[in-house]
């Protein structure tokens, strides 16, 4: 078992089957040692992370939704690289929060994903990021996060 797989098990995290695209795009693209992972929504197959943060989704639930996005990103990373130990670094996260008109704690929401990356990957999980409040996210989900990761050159 790889080091990262053992860490996931220790944290009680089971990676889901990576989500298939819902439109005309691919889940990830590799260019050299960088992999760009398409946005992953806060879908845990329960539907509980849908809605507008600050209106019908609480800060706490939105933070958990961002964590779900992180778990979905890890599933796509695994699909892209095979062994998560091949991830050298999470370079950048781009996060979008479906925010109500008076909700400004977008960075705190996105910490749900950021904290997970560091929890699972350690130093390699530390990243640059953007955290943006938006009007709508596809399929009505509360949070979406995409990623750029660097991987070991083992092609």
Automatic annotation (TrEMBL):
Protein name according to UniProt: Endoribonuclease L-PSP
SUPFAM superfamilies: YjgF-like (SSF55298)
PANTHER family: ENDORIBONUCLEASE L-PSP_CHORISMATE MUTASE-LIKE DOMAIN-CONTAINING PROTEIN, ENDORIBONUCLEASE-RELATED
Every Endoribonuclease L-PSP/chorismate mutase-like domain range: 5-138
Pfam families cross-referenced by the UniProt entry: YjgF_endoribonc
Superkingdom of this protein's organism: Bacteria
